[in-house]
Amino acid sequence: MLTPPPNPLPIHREGESSEHALIETRDLVKAYGLLPVLRKINVQIQRGEFVALLGPNGSGKSTLLRQLAGLSKPTAGQILVGGWSLPDEADAVRAQIGLVSHKPLLYENLTARENLRFFAKLYGLAGDEREQRIDSLLKQVGLYKRGFDLVRTYSRGMLQRLSIARALLHEPDVLLFDEPYTGLDQDAATVLDDLLITAHESGRTIVMATHQLERARRLASRVVILSRGGVVYDDVMEHIARAQLAAIYSDATSMAAAR
Description:
- By secondary structure, this protein is an alpha/beta fold.
- The protein folds into two domains: 23-96 and 174-258, P-loop containing nucleotide triphosphate hydrolases (Rossmann fold); 109-171.
- The protein has eight helices and ten strands.
- Strand 7 (174-178), helix 6 (186-201) and strand 8 form a beta-alpha-beta unit.
């Protein structure tokens, strides 16, 4: 099982109330030149939520995740993670976030262990603590016996599992997933399902961008739908019947496209 963040991680800065949203965007705007990608996004995410971020291609899902991860500066508006502000306090925010995308972000000519050692050093882990953490994570993601194999010999599913281990090295409270099921076969997708469920049950806050509506309905506790750079739907999953999500998605994105 995945190890829960300790107690949980103290990511709220001194003086901030824990009753505040763990993640909050206020009138967030991101534009590339004259092209707006995010248009005044206002979202609050509470600690422990599993948010499925849905929307058609070009709706702004990946851009929003990059903003939350501190990888791209907003054009306007504000982002708060545990009371820390982006981009001014990006280092503090990044220390609390693990990012997994459809690109594994691993070095294929290194072994799994060598990859994890490299990233562990970036987070200040060393010595026995680092090796124990690597052993634990490789066991948790089912790669312990393949730890000395070069990453270029890994299947797509194994790469995603190792990416999750990389994202968990520093015990983040928040996990961001950008289309993590891309290119996975059914067996690998089922393994990833189990890892996500365990991560959520361990208390982590998860935001996952995906096109897979049925998988989002099964895994997430809340759904946020983007279209044309804006939020067009936001509700907890318990309010959505099994047969409704596809219709809600179609209606919300169609109405936004017609504006």
